[in-house]
Amino acid sequence: MTELTAINPATGETLARYPRMDRDGLEAALARAASAAPDWAARPVAERAARLHDLAGVLRDARETLATTATREMGKRLVEARAEVDKCANACEYYAEHGPDLLQDTMIASDASRSFIAWQPLGTVLLVMPWNFPYWQAFRQAIPATLAGNTVLLKHASNVPGCAEHLERVFTAAGFPEGVFRNLPVGSDAVEGIISDRRVQGVSLTGSEGAGRAVGAAAGKALKSSVLELGGSDAFVVLADADLDHTVEQAVRGRFQNNGETCIAAKRFIVEEAIADAFVERFQAAIEALVIGDPMDEGTNIGPLARDDLRSELHDQVTRSVAAGARLVAGGEPLDGAGYFYPPTLLDAVEPGMAAFDEETFGPVAAVTRARDADHAIELANRSRFGLGGSVWTADPVRGEALARRLECGCAFVNGIVKSDPRLPFGGVKDSGYGRELSELGIREFQNAKTIWVG
Known about the structure:
Blueprint: E1 3-8, E2 13-19, H1 23-42, H2 45-61, H3 63-74, H4 78-102, E3 106-107, E4 114-121, E5 124-128, H5 136-147, E6 151-155, H6 161-173, E7 181-183, H7 191-196, E8 202-206, H8 209-222, E9 225-229, E10 234-238, H9 244-256, E11 266-272, H10 273-288, H11 308-323, E12 327-330, E13 345-348, H12 355-358, E14 365-371, H13 374-382, E15 386-387, E16 389-393, H14 397-406, E17 411-414, E18 429-430, E19 433-434, H15 439-444, E20 447-454
Parallel strand pairs: 5-6, 5-8, 6-7, 8-9, 10-11, 10-16, 11-14, 13-14, 16-17
Antiparallel strand pairs: 1-2, 3-4, 4-20, 9-19, 12-13, 15-18
Helix pairs in contact: 2-4, 3-4, 3-6, 4-5, 9-10
Domain Aldehyde dehydrogenase: 4-452
GO molecular function, one term: succinate-semialdehyde dehydrogenase (NAD+) activity
Family: Belongs to the aldehyde dehydrogenase family.
């Protein structure tokens, strides 16, 4: 294919076609990023931070254009798309303010008269990014990477080509030099070759488990630094003493925001048996009150899935789970008509071995599993090959913290839904990947921790 096609998932209609970058264009982009890297790294960190301040302003000025493109290309609600742009701007300001301190040399006492770690950029970093948060996923790696002095190449998901073009434009408008951030409108078949190119020093991927294994293998073969943020099947553990009204309200938010297409969405609701019936009853009522419709409409709660094949895959997981013994409480059938809509769906009596428990369900499907007690709930939560996030809901935060420590995941929350925050490291364990984004740890991933010893 010589084009990337943007399709409106609310209607199924083609929005636009974008030419793919040819081999000569890719070579020119690689060469320009490599040539820009030394000059960008040599600029004072205060200058790089100033560009991030400017970038925050550009994002806020372009908020409506950026949000509308995201909604039209991948189907998230317009109100959520606006919030995503705001989050990107806030992260720019956070790193502009705090990042320079993170890049200072770290002094370490030794047998030298002076010894320290000098934090230096690697060079050029490839970002392979998904469609579900078309701006935030790219920004949360590009912001710390560029502030650290790296140049960035973006290979975005093929169904959000307009968003990818916007990303390059906002960096240019903020005064970043040519070559510091470049969009590569190429297919997935080009990724391994880019990783192996000597002018690329690292790669970060957010995406599926399969994509992560492929990129991780390519990075390992080329001996390149890599960060992988992959799928999740986050447990939402509800203890018998939890405030049910508040917990159900947050369960709806944690599962169904972004149309349920979120790696850190709560997917497996593990509830103590003593309150399970009451939880399911309230959860069902809240789910059935959600409004499905046009994501551009302010009154809509659930928009379409991003692609028709994703809807088919999700429905297959629901069907297989019900066939294996899960109880369908709400939803469960694709909606007729235009667009890739799937209703908010609730499954009860889900057990390990069922698709809704073992696999990542990327869409508006909530699976309830009943636990005998808190220990059994944690055991069930950890009975997953994924380990991105998880949460514990209880009236006793001290007990909640103790249980959160036992969750096998990279991000554990007590009485709050899992979210990413520039101040805190973000990433997973097990089949959810490795490495960290955001915070001080995120900025370190694509830096050379150079030891300097002075006698």
